[in-house]
Amino acid sequence: MTTPEEERPDQERPAPGRSGLRNPAGAARGLGAATLALEALVLLLAIQPIRVLGGRLSGATVAAIIGLAVLAVVVAGLLRRPWAWYAGSAVQALLLLAGFLHWSLGVLGFIFAAVWAYALHVRRVILS
Fold first, then answer.
1. Is residue 111 part of a domain?
2. 8 is a domain residue
3. 46 partner at 20 to 30 Å CA-CA among 3, 7, 72, 83?
4. Any domain includes 9
5. How many domains does the chain contain in total?
6. Which parts of the sequence are annotated with region: Disordered (predicted)?
7. Is 57 inside a domain boundary?
8. Could you write out the DSSP letters of every residue in the chain?
9. What is the C-alpha to C-alpha distance for residues 107 and 100, in angstroms, rounded to an integer?
10. Whole-prediction pTM value?
11. How many Å separate Cα 66 from the centre of its chain?
């Protein structure tokens, strides 16, 4: 039994991209969305341990954490648009600035900024 590609040798199959992925843009979006979704989850789960370990969380700080988590989820859903990648970088910058509200948010900001930088690097390599 032959496959359709073998029956028509005159038609060439399209060459896969340099990365070898069928949908490199989709893979990059998936990595970015997973990074932002994980960031949102970590932010929401960080509220209680900060409070238990003696952190002084004001209502504004909790609202900022929840707002950043929601923003990360929204941006993760918009990564099909090219500007959303810049918005993802802005989320990382906002999380770094939230470090002024509580030092642990600054630590999370550095960690997720590094992960986001890696995701941007992988995106650039895959799509080039």
1. yes
2. no
3. 83
4. no
5. 1
6. 1-26
7. yes
8. ---HHHH-TTSPPPPPPTT--S-HHHHHHHHHHHHHHHHHHHHHHHHHHHHHTT----HHHHHHHHHHHHHHHHHHHTTTSTHHHHHHHHHHHHHHHGGGT-HHHHHHHHHHHHHHHHHHHHHHHHH-
9. 11
10. 0.81
11. 17
Q: Is 8 left (phi over 0), alpha (psi -120 to 50) or beta?
A: beta
pLDDT category at 45 given cuts 50, 70, 90 is: very high
Going by pLDDT thresholds of 50, 70 and 90, the confidence category of residue 75 is very high
The sign of the dihedral angle between the CA atoms of 113, 117, 120, 122 is: negative
Would the pLDDT of 15 be above 70?
no
Cβ burial of 80 (10 Å; 0-12, 13-18, 19+) is exposed
> What CA dihedral angle connects 85, 91, 92 and 98, to 10 degrees?
170
Average pLDDT of the chain?
A: 87
Euclidean distance between the first and final Cα of the chain, in Å?
Answer: 38
**Domain boundaries, position 55:** 28-127
Residues in the chain: 128
